[in-house]
Amino acid sequence: MNKAILRTRSLLEVERKFRSLAVPKLSGHGGTPPFQSLQPLGSQKIYDVYYDRSNVLSTAGLWVRNRNGQWEAKMRKGGNFANSMFEELSDTHAILSAVRQLTGLPAKEAESFGLEPIATLLTNRMSWLANEEFRIVLDEMDFGHTVGEVELQRHVELTGTTASIEEQKGRVMQEMDRNIALFMERYSWAFSPGDPKGKLSAYFEWKSEPT
C-alpha cells in the first residue's frame, strides 16, 4: 500500500524563556560581546483570551487564544516548559480542525470552537530583533508578572509522508533550538539567571491567591 506524499507549508517557532533582562536597558553595546546588530521593535499592548475545555487542549499540547481580536493556536512539537517548540496556526479552518480532533465538537469559530475562556491577560510587550534573526521579547503583565523569550520563527515547505514531514519539522526545530541556546550563552550578560515562570502559570497562581 503506497503512502500518500504530501506537500505542506508550516510556520515553526522555537522559544526559550528567561526571567527578565539583566540590564536596565537593552542596547547593542550593553555588554561583552556586543550584539552584531540590535533593532528596537517598539512596544505594544496585547490583549489575550485563552480558551480550553476541561483542559483537553492543554493536556494534548494545544493552546488556543484570541489575541487582539484574531484567533491563534500553538501546537507543541517538542521541548519543555522553558524551551518550547511549536507549530503556529492562524488560519481559522486549521484551528477548527485541530480543536475538533481533540474535542469532537462541531462548534464553529463564531461559537469559539465550543471552547470556554480560561484566562484573560493584558500584556505590555517590548521587542527587539538581534543579529537580524533572533527576536527578544519582554512581557509585563497587568497583574505584575514579567517574563521574556528569545524566539526564532521559520516558514518551511516540506514534502513527504505525514510521518516523514513530522520528522523533518523536528530536525528543523532542534537546529533552531540549538541556535537559540548558543545565542543566549554568547550574550548571557543580557539575561537574568534563574528559572522563568510562564504567563499562564503565573496567572493561575495569581488567581488562586486568597483575596
TrEMBL record:
It comes from the Eukaryota. The keyword Acetylation applies. It catalyses: thiamine triphosphate + H2O = thiamine diphosphate + phosphate + H(+). Residues 13-163 form the CYTH domain. Its cofactor is Mg(2+). CDD domains: ThTPase (cd07758). GO terms for cellular component: cytoplasm. Monomer. Belongs to the ThTPase family. Hydrolase highly specific for thiamine triphosphate (ThTP). This is Thiamine-triphosphatase. It comes from Monosporascus ibericus.
